[in-house]
Amino acid sequence: MSQVDEVKRALDIVQVVGETVDLDTRSRTPKANCPFHAERTPSFVLFPDSQSWRCFGACSTGGDVISFIMKRDDIDFREALQRAAKSAGIELDNRESERRAAASPLIDANEIALGYFWTQLRSAAGNDAQEYLAGRGIDMDAARRRDMGLAPSGMDTLTGHLKTSNISGKAAAGAGLVVQSADGGWRDMFKGRLTIAIRDAEGRVVGFGGRSLDGSEPKYLNTSRTELFDKSRILYGLNWAEKNIRSTRIVVVVEGYMDVIAAHEHGFENVVASMGTAITAEQVAQVANMADTVILSLDSDSAGQEATLNSLETVWGAFGTSSGGAGRRSTLEIKIANLESGKDPDEAIRNSPNEWQEALNNALPLLRWLMDAYTKRFDPKTVAGKSSITEKLFPLIAAVENPYEQDRYLSELAERLEITVEQLRSNASQIRTTRMRRQNQRRIPVARSDGGMELVQSGGTASLEEHLINLVVAYPDLSEFADDLPEELFHDVQNQALFTLWRTSDTIDKLRTSLTPDLEERLDQITGRELPPADQPNRVADISECVRRLHERHLRLLKSQDERVLEEMASLDEVDQTRELVDENVLKTNDRLKNLFARQR
User: Which domains occur in the chain, in start order?
Assistant: First the structure.
């Protein structure tokens, strides 16, 4: 049972409402003057069996005990849940404080390690590392500014230093600084490597990168994934770059540590690194509200180009037309900078800052860069090549919101494929139909109540509510189609909580920090379900249909509540103004259902 369910089951809505509202409890559906608007005729009704409430008057809304507390006290969902839990005598998991408490010993271990690595770099053992840095144009002052150090290869190890510094083995291992040997002992994660501390956006040391100095592989070694460190979610250098990114509204993303260090040491202060060739949506989300433009300047080798292709479709799908926030929209332009010399950003910046600046100034819009890349990868003169290019690019172009810009991209793609725009649209429709048919034919094993298994279509296991949440989280550009959706349309309390918090969060990461553990688990379950591939018009149609069906389901619920209240009043032989209000609502609900069906046709 989720914490939200536990709290709701522990509370009685009649008792909670009765603490502040003078209820008439003569019938099975207690009523009162609505506490949320001025009135003389009771229009506020409770339904004890479903633990819900509804105003048949001016408010024309309803909900559960949590939503009542929210509206009564004018607070958000999280605060209402905390107050409800306190009333029920239930202690909620404080996820954020628990995480910070658990992280504190790990951060302490990393800070001590940073000091140790710096001391080693300055010592005689660091001579080779110092020579290497000098060859990269980095003196000791710059090395100190950029949190560099040395993990020695001799007997004097970090493990021993951490022990003498009263850092527990659990904290050292949890921070990824040491690993356990086959004999049960502990050994340093980094040995014989130049170290570079990795800080998160708050400036906390969350991990390290280590560069081999003797040619051993791997060339670069990162801290393994820990409670603090996940390289797919961290942008290296963001703690230094945030101020400049916010002022220029431009962020430049490079691949590695040395690229960032060279950039900042030469005055390019809006540069961060993805710590790998593939940029992720989570990384872009961190700067989506700071910048208007993201320029990707990755290594120009074939591996870098391939990884860029593999990741940019996802990034464009999530951010090409929106901020990537969980509920708020803004335009984010993504560009690609190519260094014609084939140099890495680090080398270009050190040897020719003007070349680097020119590459940034001439960065191509992402879609145009992808057109160049895919027309090189696939032969646009063959039928198979045209199909592959269309399959890759048409959904991305369809996601462009500006119709004139979209038409321009479609015309350019059609010209490259030597076909008409009408042929391009027709081919894309055929490809989409084929992919959707294949997706719908996929079946997955689901447990039956008798313990056996049966195959069902993969799209049929998620509820309507969860499918909508999955859509708006996966495609933030669709948020406008759900922003105004009344929360009471979500009948599952966890889904309603997720939707409520989604609407008030700027980014998906901020959404996650506001979730209780059970809500985060629900979100992971929902977003872990694969959505069928579709272009922008089909996504809009999908979410619009979800919204319509949620409205229809809710209206049918209201109609059943209307009929029940009327039945209760008839049994009490009540014919008063409250009955008139309910009668009016019956007519309104019927009219809303008729209008809904009329729009569907």
Answer: 3-88 (3.90.580.10), 101-222 (3.90.980.10), 238-377 (3.40.1360.10)
